[in-house]
Specification:
Blueprint lengths: L1 E3 L2 H11 L2 H13 L2 E2 H8 L3 H13 L3 E8 L2 E8 L4 E3 L10 E6 L6 E5 L3 E3 L24 E4 L1 E8 L7 E13 L11 E7 L2 E8 L24 E8 L2 E4 L2 E4 L3 H4 L7 E7 L9 E4 L10 E9 L5
Parallel strand pairs: 1-5
Antiparallel strand pairs: 2-4, 3-4, 6-19, 7-10, 8-9, 9-18, 10-17, 11-14, 11-18, 11-19, 12-13, 12-17, 14-15, 15-16
Helix pairs in contact: 1-4, 3-4
Length: 308
């Protein structure tokens, strides 16, 4: 899910979506996966020139991506969708000079302890073997687009770009996540816990491990009986407490974390043995699930002029 805040971004999206033909094209691109432009023209009953015109507009709005692959008559242009859900924020009060954003690949964890069922995969293959935690040490995990475990944790380092005169006022973390069942099961609750720099900030109960229908971005080679998509969650810690999708999950505030410019900031995602519902955890990154994103982080801060 992409949030649009600037006039340029909003105008570009509206321009792209105002055309019924382009909407039809987007639906076909999403359903067919890697459809080439000739197939797209035939399915929409328009000329190749018209397809090229519409694709250019969709590219400019960052809705689709073109790739090239060899064909019988030279290279073919194939099209994939990049985003299909959007939040348009026309009243954003965030000063862009008082925040920074990063995206952490799901395989870029700094430490872990996981138990089967577990595994990790890139967009092209399973890394090592399933249900063997030792492959979480494989160098290829940096390319991972998905990981899963029944209990345990993975921990990530969040870059701390605060200057000496800046105070963190809010952390926003967005990720696609679900439970981890043997196979797939929509009714498989799991209590997934979150910690920031060693402080437990709350937990969220995932309702299940979802499959059957392939995730919009999940590779075609992925086993149909494995978890294929999750739920996009927004975790926010500010001066009022900690929230998941706007619902308060704890009274831990950003001030309680007391994070300074010189501090290391970490995010731990876990299913502890003490949880009531030990139903595992799956984290989806780019190339998997329904949202084609890794772990997105936004840090908002204020400046103290006396420390300048």
């Amino acid at each position: 899910m992409r949030t649009l805040r600037t006039e340029t971004e909003i105008e570009s999206l509206c321009k792209a979506l105002i055309s019924p033909t382009r909407l039809q094209m987007l639906r076909l691109i999403a359903s067919k996966r890697n459809i080439n432009l000739n197939e797209l023209a035939e399915a929409c009953h328009i000329t190749n020139g018209a397809v090229t015109h519409h694709i250019k507009i969709l590219e400019e709005s960052n809705l689709v991506e073109l790739t090239y692959s060899p064909g019988i008559r030279g290279s073919q242009k194939k099209c994939t969708i990049k985003d299909y859900q959007f939040v348009i924020d026309i009243l954003s009060a965030n000063d862009k000079t008082k925040m920074y954003e990063v995206e952490i690949p799901v395989g870029n964890f700094i430490q872990y302890k996981v138990y089967p069922t577990c595994g990790i995969a890139s967009t092209t293959k399973v890394i090592g073997e399933v249900d063997s935690p030792k492959y979480f040490d494989d160098p290829e995990v940096r390319d991972a687009g998905i990981l899963w475990f029944t209990k345990g944790f993975v921990e990530y380092r969040i870059p701390n770009y605060l200057e000496h005169n800046q105070t963190l006022k809010e952390l926003q973390l967005s990720f696609e996540i679900s439970s981890e069942a043997p196979g797939i099961c929509d009714n498989w609750p799991s209590d997934i816990y979150f910690s920031i720099s060693g402080t437990h900030i709350g937990y969220w109960t995932s309702p299940g491990d979802f499959g059957g229908t392939r995730g919009l971005f999940t590779p075609d080679w992925w086993d149909s009986q494995w978890n294929s998509y999750g739920l996009l969650k927004l975790l926010v810690i500010n001066e009022r407490g900690t929230f998941i999708d706007g619902g308060k999950i704890s009274d831990v505030t950003i001030d309680n974390l007391n994070l300074k410019p010189e501090d290391s900031i970490t995010l731990k995602i876990s299913v502890p043995e003490t949880a009531t519902n030990i139903g595992g955890c799956t984290i989806f990154g780019k190339g998997f699930g329904n949202y084609n994103q890794d772990i997105k982080v936004r840090a908002l801060f204020v400046e103290d002029e006396n420390k300048s």
